[in-house]
Each structure stands twice: as C-alpha cells, then as structure tokens.
Amino acid sequence: MLAGNTKRSNQAFTLTETLAALAVMGIVCSGVVVVTMQCSHSVINSLAQLQAMEVADEQMQQLLAKASVKEGIEYGRSDRYPDIQWQRKVEVFDEPLTGTTWVRAVCSATYTDANGQPQVMELTSWLTRLNDQQLALLRQGQQLFDSIEDAAMYAQVSVETLRQWIENGMVTTEDGAFIKENLDLYKRTGGNPTDSEKAQQVRIPLSLRPDRPEQIGQPDARPR
Predict the structure, then answer these.
(1) What are 123-155's pLDDT values in tens digits?
(2) I need a labelling partner for 216 at 20 to 30 A (CA). Which of 9, 36, 144, 149 fits?
(3) Which pLDDT score, from 0 to 100, does residue 211 have?
C-alpha cells in the first residue's frame, strides 16, 4: 500500500508544484503582454509622428511659396488629420554669433501620443537676412496696402493716378503691395519726386522665393 501511494505521488503534480507552474506562466504571460503593448505604442507613436511631420512640412511649403510674408502667428487644424493642430510663425530674431538680424519661419504640428500626452514636431527655416533699412522699418511698424484701391483711398487719388505714379518710378513690394512712405512721397510731390527722392524710396524685399540667395537651404526638422 505504501509503495503504491508513493508511486502515484511521483507521477502526479502536487498543489505546490501546480501553483508554482501557474506563477511562472503568469510571469511569462505578463511579460508578453507588456512587450506587446510597448510594440503597439511604438507603432502608434511612429505613425502619429509621421503624420505630424507631414502637416508641419505642408505648412512650411505653403509659407515658402509666398512672395512675401508678415511677422505673426497663424493657427489651424489639419484637414487630413483632424486630431493634429498646426502653428505657423514668422519671426525676427538676432543671430548672436554674427550680430545680424534674420527672419525665420517656424512651423509646428501638435499630436497626442499613445500615452495621451501632447507632442510637437517642429520645422525651422531661415528665410532672409534683414539690412538696416528693413530692420528700421520693421521696428517702426511699416504700413502696407495690399490692393491698389486701398492705396488710392489712402493717398486720396484715383486708381489711374496711382498707376501713373508707378510708371513714374514709385516703388512697391515684390508682390505688388503699396508702401505708405512711398505713397506719402508721391502725394507730397504731386506725383513728380526728384531723382534723388526716388532713389531714397523705401524697399521691403522680404522675399521667400527659392532662387534668392538670402534663403537658407532646407527646413530643419526636430521634435520638441
């Protein structure tokens, strides 16, 4: 009897052995679950990061396609990826190493990662370097008139008179906007400033055209 009982005990699992096996299986399974969740989060984060980069790059390309820009900030939400918000900023900053002043564009896209935390992808492009005249105008808040009708209304002349002023050498911006100081000059001189006065007109060539030497390479991308 004793020998038979001993043989059955050697062939079967005891309660302790069963519990130990279950504990080991639990540890292994939990490790697999953790690894699976980490892989899933990594895939989700990578996809969201790529989408955010796409949105930021789209905003940067739209900005670079413009003939000229104004300092300021714009906000919006992506039509393609509604969960992603974008920000487009044009700012003036001083470069400390060379002591020069630049205009740069910063386009960013904010997305939510797999842990529910907001993350930002950011693109930066140095657009153009400002000369002393441009910097002075910027600090004075130089006023521009985008349409010929608005410029004519300000100068209190007809649109046809304004066209004659342009033919007579009045300087506008590269995208055709009218500069307040130049309008004042032509209004003050009855549309006939001297050659010396014409040469001293205000010029604001804050152009972003890719073929201009002031533009610096490709946008710099980085997560923030």
Answers:
(1) 998 888 877 766 666 655 557 788 899 899 889
(2) 144
(3) 35
State how far the Cα of 20 lies from the Cα of 37, in Å rounded to an integer. Answer: 26
Give the sign of the dihedral formed by CA 171, CA 213, CA 207, CA 105.
negative
| Helix pair 148-155, 180-188: axis angle to 10 deg | 50
Its pTM stands at 0.51
- Cα separation, 186 vs 35, in Å, equals 73
Q: Is the dihedral of CA 64, 67, 71, 74 positive or negative?
A: negative
136-140 long-range CB contacts below 8 Å, 24 or more apart? 137/202, 137/204, 138/71, 138/92
Domain ranges of the chain: 1-130+205-224, 143-199
Task: Return the percent helix, strand and coil in the chain, to nearest 5.
Answer: 45, 25, 30
SS3 category, 38: helix
DSSP string, 42-101: HHHHHHHHHHHHHHHHHHHHHHHTSSB--SEEEEEE-SSSTT-EEEEEEEEEEETTTTEE
Question: How many of the other CB atoms lie within 10 Å of CB of 215?
Answer: 17
Average pLDDT, the chain: 77
d(CA 159, CA 148): 7
